[in-house]
Every structure is written in C-alpha cells, then in structure tokens.
TrEMBL record:
Chain ranges of the Helicase C-terminal domain: 452-613
Family: Belongs to the DEAD box helicase family.
Glycoprotein found in the keyword field: no
Coiled coil stretches, renumbered: none
Keywords: ATP-binding, Helicase, Hydrolase, Nucleotide-binding, RNA-binding
Ranges of Basic and acidic residues composition bias in the record: 79-118, 757-772
Record-given protein name: ATP-dependent RNA helicase
Superkingdom of origin: Eukaryota
Free-text function comment from the UniProt entry: RNA helicase.
Limits of the Helicase ATP-binding domain: 200-417
Catalysis: reaction(s): ATP + H2O = ADP + phosphate + H(+)
Length: 798
C-alpha cells in the first residue's frame, strides 16, 4: 500500500522538477557572457567588414521559408527537458512496475515475462525511430520539411546504442557532453586536423583564431564547436551560481541576446553554415538563424524576434537590418564571437562597404573612450561590466595565399579604425580586432589544394571545348559534376547545347532569383549523377556530398577561385578530380596557376579520340538547332517589344512590307521551321543510340550511355537470339558490351604516368621559343640596318 501511494506521487514530483528545470534553462539561456571565461583581459578593438557580395543585383524576391528550412524556429527550450522528463518518467514507471510486481507478490516468471514485453516494446520503438529518421532524411533531401535544431528526448535512447569508444579521438578536445551527443549523431568518428587545432585555442584558451585549411576540411565546426562549447560552459557556470532563493535578476533574465555573429560571402553558404551549426547545437537549445538577401526583410525581422543567440548572414542584408535599427542586431554589447567565414572573399573589390559599416557598429571591447561611446550610440547602452570581450575567428582555405598576412599578424600591428580601407586580409583582421596573441593555424600545404583532389587538363582549341565537355559528360558521366564558367553568357551557351543534346543540367548564377538558386542546388543535391553548370557564385563553401568531378570550362581569374572551385569535390574523406579545359589563349594563365600551387606536373586527362567524330557530328547538329532556336526567340522578343512599345505610346504598328516581301518572309519561316524539324529528327535518331567509338562493330553493341538496365536487357535479348538460332551461323551472333560508364577519376587513375605533362619542360620550351623569336628579330634588324647602310653607300657613290 505504501509503495502504491509513493508510486502515485512520484510522477508529480518529476513534473515539478521538470518545471523547475525549464525555468532554470530559460534563466541560463538569458544570461550574459561571463567575462571570466577568457584568459587575459587585454584591450582590443574590433573592426570588421562585410559586404553583400552576391546580392546587390538580385531581386529581393520572397521565398517560402519553410521550403528551405528557414522557418521561424519554434521555441526549442524545453524539448530537451521534456525528453529528459519523459525518460525519467519511463525509468520511474519501470521501477514502479517492478515494485508493483513485488508488492503484488507476482512470480519471478511473470516479472521476466513483463521484462520481455518491455524489451519487445523497446525494440519496436527503436525500429519506428529508425524509420522516422530515414523518412526525415528523405524529406530533408527533398526540401520538404524543416530540420529540427533540437531533437526530441528519444535521442537519449539512440545515444545508448553509440559505441563511445569509437569516438575516443575527440576525448582530448574535452567537448561538452551535449556537443558530443551531436557528434555521435553526425557519426564523425574523429575531429579533422583543423578542428583538432582550433578547438583547444578557441574553446579552452579563449583565443582569436585565424584558420586556414584545405577546402572541405571541416572549418565550419572548427569555429562552430568552440562557440557552442563556450556558450554551454557559460550557461553551466551561471547555473552553478544560481541564487539560492531561485529568484531571477530581472536585468540578467532579459530575453536571448545575440552572442555570435557569423558573416559569409554568399547566401547559400550562410544557409549551409546555419544548417551545420543547427546540427551541432541540436542538444543545447541555442538558436541559429540565417539572415540573407532574397527573402523579405519582414520575414527576417520576424526570425530575429525569436532572439536567436547565433546569427549567420550575408553582409548586405545584415547591414540593411542593422541600419534599420533591428533591436536584436544592434544589441551588440552582448556579442562574444565574431566570425568571418571565407574571409578573403569579403575584401574583394566593391564588396566591403556593408562589411565596414557592420564593423563600425561593433562596440570597442574594453577601452571606454569617447570614441567608443559615440560608436556604440546606436547600440543599447550597457554598463562597462556588461561589455564583453569578443573572440574573432577568421577562416578560409586560401588566406595563406596572401604572402605577408602571417608576418603582419605576428607583428600584432593594431591600427586604428579611422581611414582604413578593408582592402586586404591583413587590414580586415586588424580591424576585426584580432589580438596579437591570436592563434594562427595554417594547415594548408604548399599547393593549398585539397589532398585527395586529382587535377588534370585537356588542351584543346576554343571551338572544340563544347565537344570535350559533351564527351566527358556522356562517356564519364558518373557521380555529381559541377561545370564552372566565368561568364553567364558561356553558362547559357553550354547549358542550352547540353539540353539539346539530351543531357539534363541545372544552372546556378547570380542573376537568378534566390528561389531558383536554392531549387537548383536542392535538385542537384537530390540527383546521384546530377550536373550543375555554375558561375563562381557556387565556388565557395558549397558542401554537396558526392560531387565527383569539377570541370573548369573557363579558367577562373585567380588562383584562389581555382582552389575553391576545385574544392567542391574531394571533400571531407572523399576523393575527386578536376578537369581544366585549356585553350592556347589559356596556357600562360594555366602555367601561372600551376606556379602558385608549386606544381610542376599536371596530368593530361585521357581521351578516347575514336569517340570524337560522333561527338562532333551530334554537336554540329545541336549548334545548328541552338542557332535557329535562338534566332527565332530573338525575333519573337523583338516583335513583342515593338508591339508593347507601340501600345504604350498608343501608336498603330504599320506593316510596310510589300506583298512579295511578306510571301518571301513566310516562305523563309516555313523553310527554317522544316530545317529545324529535320535537324531535330536527325539528332534524335543519333541520340537514340549509345555514343559509340568509330571502331564500333555491328556485332557488338557498345558505347557510352548504355545504362546497366539497358545492358541487362540487351544481354538477355542476345541470349534469347542465340538460343533461338542454336545452329548458330557465324556473323549472326550479337555480343553486348556495355560501356561501364567510368567516372573521370577512375579514368585518370588508370591512364598511367605517360600522360603527365611537365610544366617545367613547357615553360623551358616557351622560354626557348621566346629567345629564338628575339634572336630572329635582332638578326632581321641587323640585316635591315646593313641593307640600309649599303644602300646609302651606293647612293653616295652615285
Ligand atoms: N570531424 C569530421 N569528420 C567527418 N566529416 C566531417 C567532420 N567535420 C566536418 N565534416 C564534414 O565535412 C564536410 C566539409 O565541411 P565544411 O563545409 O565545414 O568544410 P570547409 O573546410 O568549410 O570547406 P570549404 O573551405 O569548401 O568551405 C561537411 O560535409 C561536414 O559535415
């Protein structure tokens, strides 16, 4: 009886405890940054810059937030506690059941039976949970559902199945258990080298960090985990200092403050970093919100009203809201972390205006000068005690390309903000308040490029580029491929050609509306063998798993962009390859690129030239179709424009053509249309066959584009045929050799060393040729001079 009474009481106690915990969490959540967490109290000033790098020319079209996981986060507070309470309740219930069993005098067998049932139930629950996770993953991949920043309590059960010993490599980094839980969920068995190096400095020593490491090496978590770690430590410290009466100091209990501001150069990157941090913060209740152009300011303001601790944004929209006086964004006194991701991109020409303005909004760290107080006028006035020491993190894969950068940082020169332009990475870091003792972690190797990246090139004439591109995509079209162009015109040209050739491609460039940009990425991400044709807007930061190949259709203007473009493949622990299409005009640019990566050898991409006649035949048809279609749409657009203009001016358009001209026009149109139909049909028939090398024998069905399914069907057909003609006559037998679409990396690896091109040799040859030309020129000059003198002599004699 006594036990029955206590059973009834226990759940109530749990509820009460959970309520207390929830209040505590709210209080801790609202606490300010604890300045004692940093090691020293040195003065530092903060100057940062940002700029809307991609957004200036885009329409600020509204996008459906929920579609892209940008919905206003529901208050996550409490779900963790709920989970815990639920779990505790389960434990209590199980205990009670056991106790009940004993109290009721049930036999051991009966108790065991109950135990078995509970186990079975647990198993079923686990299975359901697994199914749910899979479903969520699919939904997320399709962009259907918002991914929760915080999981439900069931994660506790999931964690039970984690073998923590597999994650021992993380132990030395002493991360908070809630962060480790996220790492288990992410299945990151060990920290990447940049994470290993940055976490102790950023999280435990409270240092500023300049981090440079190859593309895809996990830099986001290298700054993300220290931020979350310190916020969690701070929260726990405050929890320990909770006044005994449990009453909250009203000032301290003010709603969530902005603690970390992360600036990225592109919108897509901001959204990606947000997602990544949400995953890492899923157990710790911190809210991460993206603030980017391309969605309505009102919606962003609504997002900010939820008072997220971490904001990730692009400079343009951030500055727009800050200068508009958004309360959450201007309360910068609470800011403890300022991050510049892809920092070197931030300072590129014409992009730093907003960045500079944001920097100037940041209150100075601890010096309370007149200037400071003036600078922070726009911010909420706070006591000097509340002034926080900010940590500054500056990250990129290509920082180290700025030769003097490290030297200057080590000198610790700290210039004033006044009159400084944010035109170099050095100035940017100084203005961002980088302290002299900042940890400078440069893990880039001499070549800067990702370790597992294999690079290659194809040297070709300008007019053959399209053919080689089509060849690579159809003969080696395995895995995801990104084709980079420097101009939107080139992007439009090749995407149109490839579509005519029956290759499905998605495009991404800065003149697209934001919705379309995100959709293109989503679709590309969702297709195992997808092809994305992109400008350099996609060069930085985009983390799409399974990108196997990067093709440089046009060479980029700088070595940095080449590194970032190529870095879309060979990310994390995967490998990948890049192929650059080099025309004679590009050779010197390419040689300069190789020089900046300290590379002598570059591999030539292996080509099976017997495919090329067929490739060129198809391409020629596609070009003709493209030309006719373009002309047609241009004519239509011109006609529409004329009609619209006339309508606006209330004028009547007169047709001045004579009858004869009209008839001729009509005939021309008809002929063009017939020509178009013929070309399309011809191409269709070519495309219906697999792309075959010239040496193709009718007895063998082979070629690129034979899918495994088609190959199976054809093999089956061949078997049927041969069994029907059991008295097989020579020549009638058909053999199917499916062209196993070999992915470019595989082709490159099996190509052998003879395809290597020695750039040193190339450079020497070029030097020899230049020298030869110079000598020839000099000889010519000398001969001309001699002839002139002889002529003069002869004239003098006469
Ligand atoms: N410790 C880890 N173990 C395995 N994978 C990881 C780890 N940390 C991060 N990753 C994964 O590696 C991929 C690349 O990470 P991230 O985007 O942070 O790289 P990055 O260095 O910022 O690249 P970039 O320079 O191109 O922006 C991501 O998919 C991320 O989930």
């Amino acid at each position: 009886m006594a036990s029955q009474i206590s059973d009834k009481k226990r759940p109530k106690k749990t509820k009460k405890r959970s309520r207390v915990e929830s209040v505590e969490f709210e209080r801790i959540n609202s606490l300010n940054w604890n300045p004692t967490l940093t090691e020293k109290d040195d003065d530092f000033s903060f100057l940062i810059g940002s700029n809307e790098l991609e957004g200036g020319f885009l329409c600020l079209e509204e996008i459906d937030e929920s579609e892209y996981n940008l919905g206003i986060a529901k208050s996550t507070g409490g779900s963790e506690e709920k989970g815990k309470t639920k779990l505790k309740k389960q434990k209590v219930d199980t205990k009670n059941e056991e106790l009940n069993g004993e109290a009721k005098g049930e036999s051991k067998e009966e108790i065991e039976e109950v135990g078995k049932e509970t186990k079975q139930k647990k198993k079923k629950k686990k299975k359901k949970k697994k199914e749910k996770i899979n479903k969520n993953a699919v939904n997320e991949a399709e962009g259907n559902e918002e991914s929760p920043a915080v999981t439900d309590g069931n994660d506790d059960q999931e964690q039970d199945s984690v073998d923590e010993t597999e994650y021992y490599a993380w132990n030395e980094l002493r991360l908070h258990p809630l962060l480790m839980k996220s790492i288990y969920a992410l299945k990151f068995k060990e920290p990447t080298p940049i994470q290993k190096a940055c976490i102790p400095a950023g999280a435990h020593q409270g240092k500023d960090v300049v981090g440079a490491a190859e593309t895809g090496s996990g830099k986001t978590l290298a700054f993300g985990l220290p931020i979350l770690q310190r916020l969690l430590e701070e929260r726990e410290k405050a929890e320990r200092q909770l006044p005994e009466n449990g009453e909250l100091d009203e000032k301290v209990a003010s709603a969530g403050l902005l603690r970390a501001l992360i600036i990225t150069p592109t919108r897509e990157l901001a959204l990606q970093v947000t997602d990544h941090l949400k995953e890492a913060a899923r157990h710790s209740n911190f809210r991460v919100v993206p603030i980017v152009g391309g969605m309505s300011s009102e919606k962003q303001e609504r997002l900010l009203k939820t008072r997220p601790e971490i904001v990730v944004g692009t400079p343009g929209r951030l500055w727009e809201l800050m200068s508009g006086g958004d309360t959450h964004l201007v309360e910068l006194h609470s800011l403890s972390f300022f991050v510049l991701d892809e920092a070197d991109r931030m300072i590129e020409n014409g992009h730093f205006h907003e960045l500079q303005s944001i920097v100037d909004m940041l209150p100075m760290a601890s010096k309370s000068t007149d200037d400071d107080s003036q600078k922070s006028q726009n911010c909420e006035t706070v006591s000097s005690v509340q002034r926080k020491k900010r940590q500054t993190f500056v990250f990129s894969a290509t920082i180290a390309l700025s030769a003097d950068f490290r030297k200057k940082l080590k000198r610790g020169s700290q210039k004033s903000k006044a009159n400084d332009e944010l035109n170099s990475i050095e100035t940017l870091s100084e203005r961002a308040g980088m302290r002299a003792d900042a940890a400078i972690i440069d893990l880039t190797n001499a070549s800067i490029l990702a370790n597992k990246l294999e690079e290659s090139f194809i040297d070709c004439r300008e007019e053959d580029k399209d053919g080689y591109l089509y060849y690579i995509l159809s003969v080696h079209g395995q895995g995801r491929t990104i084709v980079f162009c420097t101009s939107i015109a080139a992007l439009r040209h090749i995407s149109s050609l490839l579509r005519i050739l029956g290759i499905n491609v998605w495009t991404l460039h800065a003149q697209m509306q934001q919705r379309a940009r995100l959709k293109a990425i989503d679709r590309f991400r969702g297709h195992e063998h997808g092809i994305l044709i992109a400008t350099d807007v996609a060069a930085r930061g985009l983390d799409i798993p399974g990108v196997r190949t990067v093709i440089h259709y046009q060479l980029p203007h700088s070595a940095e962009v080449y590194v970032h473009r190529s870095g879309r493949t060979a990310r994390a622990h995967s490998d990948g390859c890049s192929i650059a299409l080099i025309t004679p005009n590009d050779t010197s640019k390419f040689a300069a690129l190789c020089k900046s990566f300290s590379k002598d050898n570059f591999q030539r991409f292996p080509l099976e030239m017997s495919y090329m006649p067929e490739v060129m035949k198809r391409l020629s048809l596609a070009r003709q179709i493209d030309k006719i279609s373009r002309k047609d749409s241009q004519d239509k657009a011109k006609k529409n424009w004329l009609e619209r203009s006339a309508e606006l001016m209330e004028l009547d358009l007169e047709d001045n053509d004579s009858e004869e001209e009209r008839v001729n026009n009509h005939k021309r149109k008809k002929a063009t249309s017939a020509q178009l139909t013929n070309l399309q049909e011809e191409l269709k028939s070519l495309l219906s066959r697999p792309l075959q090398p010239k040496t193709f024998s009718k007895r063998y069905l082979a070629g690129a584009g034979v899918s495994p399914l088609l190959q199976n069907q054809l093999e089956e057909l061949a078997r049927q045929k041969s069994s029907n003609n059991s008295g097989d006559v020579k020549g009638k037998k058909m053999i199917v050799i499916g062209q196993d679409c070999v992915e470019p990396l595989q082709a490159l690896r099996s190509a052998g060393p003879e395809t290597k091109l020695n750039l040193k040799d190339m450079a020497e040859k070029r030097r020899d040729i230049t020298e030869l030309r110079r000598k020839r020129k000099e000889t010519k000059k000398r001969l001309r001079e001699q002839r002139r003198k002889q002529k003069k002599k002869l004239q003098g004699k006469e």
